[in-house]
């Protein structure tokens, strides 16, 4: 018998069938993933770093990768995984948007694979899981969280922890194997290292356990039996939570840690809940928002017209009602989702609403992680669980029999197409805001200008001359901290230690470093020649034409010296020792003070110095000569 004759007939048919057609489920999975990557890439390629991205890179370059850096609680957030990523990014590719973009895309693909794994664990490998999977991959709800670097480093790991944790928790409920419990606890710990919001996973997974256990009745006996059978995972959750609390409190007690926690008023809370659920979550689940409005200088928040929101409420209410009329135990799934949303809203209300106001609810990133519980519920509305034999009520069977198969297929196809069209429309709208970053050219010019400076260049530290970060970021809104990731070690050292300047440079609004001049309060013209004020008994006072108020100022003193000398410049209570070089020169110092005169003392009696003019004011780029 020949080899051809021995080969089964179906093997030859499989080889002749195109690879994409051999497994339609696999093909659908790949098509959805490809569309997700294409959409997110087209948003990311025109985006750039914003606000916290620069602060986190500056902080990373200033620290060694160690326990203190990774576990420091920053503005209330505990995010060792995010801090670790920012440290690696800053060391390997500071201010490199291409590398950051590719990292975010790869992370989104990996998390999507975890969501697919979760769905197959829950429902088995069937064609219908492509629907909730597409909902996860293409929903606009996650776009702001997954395309802004500072948000992505916490929301992507958190989403991965939810998907991985649900998958292994369900596997443990079914198998009772300790290996599944260990993996479940691992994902919970992974979430704890990502974002403190993971703690709401515990009440959510407790309710979801009942939703995915169809044989467990809602009686005290059955629930206690389930707890005894699965005690290992609950003990693991408790131990991990206790350890996390100790580490979190330790990180909070260290420098740079602050948490803005304040209970909002009842009116603020009511508005926040309404906006979160009815203007953000529900329209987002159905492909919205229809439109966006600017948030920060390169982000956006929900701004849908009311008719769109109303239509979404009607559709969502219909879905919920139909699910209760057709699906057994679906109330448990909806309750699990409500528990997760309730925990999310409560956490955000305490951490954001009292300071940012209820409109913070219109930023979809705050509910991005809720997409994972949502796709679980959507899956349960469409399919029976893998071990569920009585999922559907008699009414569902009667309706399914009454509706022609062709009508059902066409209706489902149209609904999916409409949802996809809405989601792509929303993505396109968001992209227009994300791509409108006005400071990309400033950042790139700053990098290039810094790289061309001579080794001995004297950079005078000032606030960043454009609204890239703003006063809210305090010391990180200074040039020295801003350029640290792309500066050489020598430049960082000089920026941190230099206290006096003879040829200072200042960062201009166009991103170039230019000679500095002091704009503010000046001394009157000298009486004659270059020397208006000469020291007596080692001290001289140079008057100002007006009184400078207390403020961080740049102080310039012009002088003529017969030889090198030292002295101390005073402005109010602040002072700085300086060196005067031989000949006609000038010296600049930053001082925090005020008054109507500049005092120079500590001069040697034979210093041979005189002073011609002085200024106290704001440092700015000198106009071209």
Protein model, in words:
- The chain is of the alpha+beta class and 625 residues long.
- It has 24 helices and ten strands.
- The strands form two sheets. An eight-stranded mixed sheet has the order 3-4-5-10-6-9-7-8. Strands 1-2 form a two-stranded antiparallel ribbon.
- β1 (292-295) and β2 form a beta hairpin.
- α12 runs parallel beside α15.
- The protein is elongated.
- Mean pLDDT is 91; it is low at 1-6.
Helix run count: 24
Coarse shape: elongated
| N- and C-termini, Cα separation | 95 Å
Strand-residue proportion: 5-15%
Segments where pLDDT lies below 50 for 5+ residues? 1-6
| Backbone structural class | alpha+beta
For the biggest sheet, the summary is: 8 strands, mixed
Q: Kindly state the number of beta strands.
A: 10
Strand order of the largest sheet: 3-4-5-10-6-9-7-8
- Range of helix content: 40-55%
- Average of per-residue pLDDT values: 91
**Nearest-angstrom radius of gyration?**
32 Å
Summarize the helices and strands and which ones pair or pack:
Elements: H1 3-6, H2 9-16, H3 19-22, H4 24-44, H5 52-61, H6 67-70, H7 80-92, H8 97-123, H9 130-138, H10 143-147, H11 149-175, H12 178-192, H13 201-211, H14 220-229, H15 231-252, H16 266-285, E1 292-295, E2 299-302, H17 306-326, H18 330-356, H19 371-382, H20 394-402, H21 405-434, H22 440-452, E3 458-459, H23 479-482, H24 489-497, E4 504-507, E5 513-522, E6 540-561, E7 565-571, E8 574-580, E9 583-601, E10 609-621
Helix pairs in contact: 4-8, 4-9, 4-21, 5-7, 7-11, 8-9, 8-11, 8-19, 9-19, 11-12, 12-15, 13-18, 16-17, 16-18, 18-19
